[in-house]
Amino acid sequence: MDPLLETLEAAVQRLRQPPPVAAEVEKIREQLAEHRAQGLELDKLLPSFSALCCRGEELISRAAHDDPAAQAVRSRLLRLRSLWDEIRQRAEERESKLNDVLDLAGKFWADVAALLSTLRDSQDIVRELEDPGVDPSLIKQQIEAAEAIKAETDGLREELEFVRTLGADLIFACGETEKPEVKKTIDEMNAAWESLNRTWRERMERLEEAMTASVQYQDALQSMFDYLDNAVIKLCDMSTVGTDLGTVKQQIEELKQYKVDVYQQQIDMEKLCHQGELLLKKVSDQTDRDMIQEPLTELRHLWENLGDKITQRQHKLEAALLALGQFQHALSELQAWLSHTHTTLDTQRPVSSDPKAIEIELAKHHVLRNDVLSHHATVETVNSAAAELLESSPGDEASHLRDQLDQLNRSWESLLLKTQERQKLLEAALQQAEGFHGELEEFLQWLRRTESQLSAAKPTGGLPETAREQLQQHLELQAQLNQRAEQYHHLLDQGESMLLARGGEEAGPGTTQTQQNLAMLQNKWASLNTKMDDRRGKLEEAVSLATGFQTSLQDTMNWLTQAEQTLNMAQPPSLILDTVLFQIDEHKVFVNEVNTHREQVLALEKAGSQLRFASLKQDVVLIKNLLLSVQARWDKLVQRSLDRGRHLDEARKRAKQFHEAWRKLTDWLEEAEKRLDSEVEISNEPDKIKVQLTKHKEFQKALGSKQPVYDTTVRSGKAMRDKAQLPADQQKLDHLVGEVRDKWDTVCGKSVERQHKLEEALLFSGQFAEALQALVDWLYRVEPQLAEDQPVHGDMDLVSNLMDAHKVFQKELGKRTGSVQALKRSARDLMETGRDDTAWVKVQLQELSNRWDTVCALSVTKQTRLQQALKQAEEFRTAVQMLLEWLSEAEQTLRFRGVLPEEAETLQALLHTHRDFMGTVEEKRADVNKAAGMGEAILTVCHPDSITTIKHWITIIRARFEEVLTWAKQHEQRLETALTEVLNNANLLEELLSWLQWAETTLVQRDTEPLPQDIPQLKTLITEHQTFMEEMTRKQPDVDKVTKSYKRKPVEPPSSLAERRGARKHQQQQQQPSMQLSGGNPRLNQLCARWQQVWLLALDRQRKLNDALDRQEELKEFANFDFDVWRKKYMRWMNHKKSRVMDFFRRIDKDQDGKITRQEFIDGILASKFPTSKLEMSAVADIFDRDGDGYIDYYEFVAALHPNKDAYRPTTDADKIEDEVTRQVAQCKCAKRFQVEQIGENKYRFFLGNQFGDSQQLRLVRILRSTVMVRVGGGWMALDEFLVKNDPCRARGRTNLELREKFILPEGASQGLAAFRSRGRRSKPGSRNASPTRSSSSASHSGASLPSAPSTPATPTASASSRSSLTHSRDYAKPWLAHSKTPTPTKCHCCPDLGHNHSAPEGAASGSKLKRPPFHSSRGSLTGENGGTPHSSKRSDPKRGAATASGPTSRAGSRAGSRASSRRGSDASDASELQDARSVCSDTSDTPRRPGSATKPSKIPTISKKAPSPKTPGSAKK
Known about the structure:
Strand order of the largest sheet: 3-4-5-6-7
């Protein structure tokens, strides 16, 4: 009972103070496995616990009520049971807690990993997005893409909060040492979230800045083009050079005022060109560069033309003035101009120190210089005219004229010199300022990089090596900073010198900018130095902390090693009192030392936790492992110390108990021996002898009362000797036991000897009768103890004790032999004296002889019986031990049986082996019965003290044998059951395979037979097939039964967080589950495959039969189909739904080009839940498609639904113009369609193409006598004539495609921008800008999806390689993983490879100005069809497949995406222009291209058109 109590108390102590729960999944699993292993160890103690409880209850029931031993057993049993119950309860609570924390940790770490991966991927995507574009529509789409990413990441907020909650729960559940790791992970996740949001905000700020700059640039560019148009018109509208002086003077003044205005605008133009050059530096894509550069080139060209025209008119006016004889007036005008120009040069602002300000001044000076150079011809003309006048003038006039002329030439030369000097001064200042500012900007960039490098610095190292390495790297970086100090001071000095050199221009913008840059440089330098010092302090502190932690850790580990060695080398607890007391004193010293180190370990753990929270991840893992190792060693050391203290205390108690008993017994024996030695003298008087004999009998009674104490002490000493682990203890205990035994034997011997002497003395003193009576009494007293009916059998210990006691009795008997002989001699002497009592003496002597002989015989008999009992006890003990050993082996064999195999042969082999084992068990039954019989035989003659022990051993061997037998029978039954099941499953498998073979053959044969066209016959076949399906369903449980023992393959979890969040569970439409076995029986795999195949064949058969029945029923109903009835039913349904025909058509028309395919029309009607069928819809579609081109446009749709009404037709002039423009533009056959965009009423933008890229022109359009006219220059031109000149298809002898793109660029590549494809969300029809009122057929190519994924939205892409790819859409794991540019349209098959001639001079002069990307479109775009890339995958129309097979098989979806306001001059403010630019980019849609090369124009009317004009539906079709 004591060892079990110790084990249970240790287990309870472990459960009361369990180790803290870990936070990592693997460690929690290890803790759970360790806990379960401890539970299994405790389960093994259950039989011992139950046996002890039963035995204790039996002892208590047999003992007296107030027996102290029974009460002690009862208290121990209560303690045992309470410990057992507490262990069970705490173990269940611990396991439940570990399982809960395991689930929590699994969810937390998995979600954290997935969320961190998603956040980092999202941040990488935002960072890798292409730089902001230069076109507002492109920037708008980039903003939409960024907002789409933001919307996607905002969806992670809920999951972020959920993970935070999980982390808080995990922190609460795990131990103190694990909490910093979880907190650090949560902080890392929060930092990733904040970093993502910060990156997105920076991206949006850049895009907003780019949008503002781009809109301002586009506005300025458009305003400049508008101004140039107006200026050219105004210059051309000036009257011809007059012939009279007044008119010429007036025209000169008018030209002056005109030049002042142009001069101011030219300064703005130079600023605009400078802004464009800055934009050019920001972009790297050639298409974007062309889009910026070409308008600037054209703008400069137009300015040059305007300047040439102004100069020509000025020369004409000056020539006319001279021709009128007004030389003096011309001279004075020239002198006034020279004086004004001199004044302008002298009053110009001093040179600034800012490159931008200098460039602006240089631009102004460039304008002034051009004006000066333009007057060179005027000076020469005046000089030539003056030379002629000098020849014809008299002397005074000639002299005066020559002076004026010399003054004029000197002023001119001075002006040229001033202009040149100013030019050189500005260029030198610009070069100096650019050099300084470039160096300054490079230095600032280095400072920013270094600062970002510091900001992104990793956490400090937790180990000394890592911390020192980081500190060394930082010192190197700081050394670089110190090396840059000289450059920093040089820049400051240079900037200050520049500011001082400029003099009194401190208030100038350039100076202010330079001062700001210098101030920024100083601030950055100071900030960087501060951060450097802070970082260095942190790193030095980290080195100090890491070094201190490492030193403390090493000291602790060294002390732990020393303490462990101390415990390992400590001797086992001694059972000698003095020795164990010395060991206890030593252990107290050790415990005090352990307690003094407790604070050191706690401080070490605290320092380690701080380091883990702020250190590198790899260091954190190492520190954590070191701390765990130290903590485990510390806990183990403390536990071992407690165990040793407990063991020493228990040894002290036992040693003290034994030594006290031994000491008391020894003292009493020594005192008794002294008393016996002191009573040596024996009196001669009979009375005194009798008194001495009485006293001695009392002493013998006291000695007899000490017999149990002696036996207990000797037994305890022997037991302690057997348990003693120290050789010195064994010797000492042997010595103590021998000493007490010797003293006991001495006292007993002396006691017997004294009694013998007293009896002899009594006999010799004449007290024969008393001596004889005393001896007879002793013989009568000992005779019952030697009787043969006294039991002497029992266990080994009892029989040995009985033999020892009998040996003592035999010694005493031998000593009394002398007394008997003396009595006999005395008796003979008395009889010889012839006394009166001779007869009595004789009788007494006879009785003494008889009693003596009887006792001697009984003594010999008892000796024999004891020897037999000892032999029988040894045999019983040997038999029991052999049986127990064999039962233990059998239990181990049965307990550790593995999982039963699934093969019949293996099962049969196992069953055969187990039956052999069962035979062995049955053979052992005889041994058990024999041993039990031996025990029962002992019990019949057993000593009362040994009955319980013998019964206990008999019960144990029988119970354990029955338990082993029961386990063996159960295992045999399991094997037989498994074998029977395997054989039955094999038979069932063969039956199922044969039935599946028949079913598959039957189904295949039935599928080859044509289906009847009669409804009753079809219903009969369906009924038969339903019977087959029911039979197959009945066989489903058999299939499950056969396959249930095989493991199914686990379904892989979703691989990413987005898939886990967005994945939907697909429900099985079939009753048959998908069975995938992980290997094993190939016949079973064949069964699964066959079963699935037959099930699919049966479902396919059922579907075919149902489809055939449905089709027959539809045909039966369709036989009486009336379109008029269908139309009225549809219109009633639309009215009931409160829907309009226009809204419904707009919803179907995804790309908003005014026409839909037959399939789109059919699918749209069926998707609207209108009660109809595909058969009816096929007929209805044929009726709607009147011209049979495979498309249904809006007019056909309305005309079919309203046969008594004409479809909407244009009535106003604007409507007629739109209709005619649509009709004319629709005739373009190019791959890149000619585009026209309606800007407003009677205003259209024509997108023209040339070899340098696309350009655009804003034209006024009107109708004159039913002819549409276009404003060109100062006149009007018919629309068809204008298109002949500008549309490549209509140009005779020209090419309609760029040859350079064909022969130089890769296949499929183009230099035009393609549509920015947003994150792939299709806008709802109601939210799209494109609608029947916003017809859009721009030049954006179709983003046709691949046939394999028709509904997968395309996404923006930034890679340049995607521009040359023929694949227009890709599938990405994340919706924003795409770039912003897509391939431009390639050539269509129907267009010849033709070049493009240069435009005529007039076309160049009035040609396109702003280059628009080809994906721009807005309201009223009037192209016929978008250019697009033909796809290899074709969508064939069932009726027109053959007719369209040779043409392009994909149709471009149109995209709305340009600025609807179109920069209409100065009719809107800057704010409205900016708002307009930000809101006009409409959604893009990816619609599969329709078959056929024929294009259809947009025919959807505008809502603003009030009354339709009569016009046939097909009048505008080709």
